[in-house]
Design brief:
By secondary structure, this protein is of the alpha/beta class. The protein is built from seven helices and eleven strands. The longest helix is centred in the N-terminal third of the chain and has 17 residues, at about 35-50.
Length: about 270
């Protein structure tokens, strides 16, 4: 049994978000972090590893510096890592990203007992589409928004979070799960894990590695193969200071009603 976890390196949105004049994100000028939901996916995989001794492989598609993130995940306990990186893959939207990641996961190999895990959503693109798209392309059953999971034999019982409650779903391996923060508290790297991380295998899948997969075609990957286009992105202007009216008397209420009427809100 093995678990393949897809992890995305994302800009730290708690800091400055920089946008290029052409509307694309200026990723080079921003600090990066591991996408938070993906940390929960990694922790879930490592817990299963603690229980069963299974192998955990972490996969990311991104530029070469994303290797550092894979080493961090190996220091947490992942066994090996795969960086999916090529000029041909740059500019991919969610459709193209999932084509490429699905091809990478296929190359690693998904067998009967295996699980593919993703975060629910990346905090930059924010679409929550990549996990379900990978599942579709690999013909795997999927459960999204997993808040609890228990594996018994080849069945996983998942508590799936909904807006107003939970749904319990049983799914058979091989399958794909997308994980949310309610699932667990990610562990820290250990000191021995940090030393050991540099001995663990880290492979790069470039265009040449994946090009023979039918999912990899110039019309389905990269900017040219992306059916969606970013029209514009920008940093919204800071909001002005609000107006506070104090008091609960009739005069204050009339003043508030006057302001709202003048702005055509009421
Ligand atoms: C026209 C266009 C051009 C773009 N160009 C670029 C670009 O040049 N560079 C760029 O970085 N982005 C680019 N993007 C954004 C990029 O397409 C998305 O960030 C990416 O497809 C993932 O979508 P998402 O962030 O909404 O992920 P979600 O669907 O919200 O992610 C869900 C989960 O999928 C997995 N996942 C998602 N992406 C990856 C990944 N890369 N590696 C491993 N796991 C992953 C993670 O587990 C994640 O939690 C572009 C988008 C468009 C529309």
């Amino acid at each position: 049994m093995k678990i393949i976890v897809c992890v995305k390196q994302v800009p730290d949105t708690s800091g400055k978000v920089a946008v290029n004049p052409d509307g694309t994100l200026n990723r080079a000028s921003m600090e990066t972090i591991i996408n938070p939901d993906d940390m929960n996916a990694v922790e879930a995989a490592l817990k299963l590893k603690d229980e069963t001794g299974c192998k955990v492989t972490v996969v990311t598609m991104g530029p070469p510096p994303a290797m550092g993130m894979l080493r961090e995940l190996m220091a947490m306990g992942a066994d090996d890592g795969v960086l999916v990186s090529a000029r041909e893959f740059g500019g991919s939207d969610t459709y193209a990203t999932s084509q490429i990641l699905a091809a990478a996961v296929k190359r690693i190999g998904v067998e009967k007992d295996d699980i593919v895990m993703c975060g629910r959503q990346a905090i930059d693109g924010d679409t929550a589409q990549v996990g379900p798209q990978i599942a579709e392309k690999l013909h795997l059953p999927q459960v999204t928004y997993v808040a609890e999971m228990h594996k018994t034999g080849d069945t996983i019982t998942c508590k799936r979070m909904l807006e107003d409650g939970y749904m319990t779903i049983k799914v058979q391996t091989p399958c794909l799960l997308t994980c949310i923060k309610e699932l667990n508290n990610p562990r820290y790297m250990s000191v021995s894990g940090i030393f050991g991380a540099y001995e663990k295998p880290l492979e790069t899948f470039g265009y040449e590695t994946l090009k023979d997969d039918p999912l990899i075609d110039p019309t389905t990957i990269g900017l040219k193969g992306s059916p969606t286009n970013i029209f514009k992105s920008f940093t919204p202007p800071a909001k002005g200071v609000g107006l506070m009216l104090e008091g609960d008397d009739k005069g204050t209420c009339e003043k508030l009603a006057g302001i709202l009427t003048a702005k055509h809100i009421i």
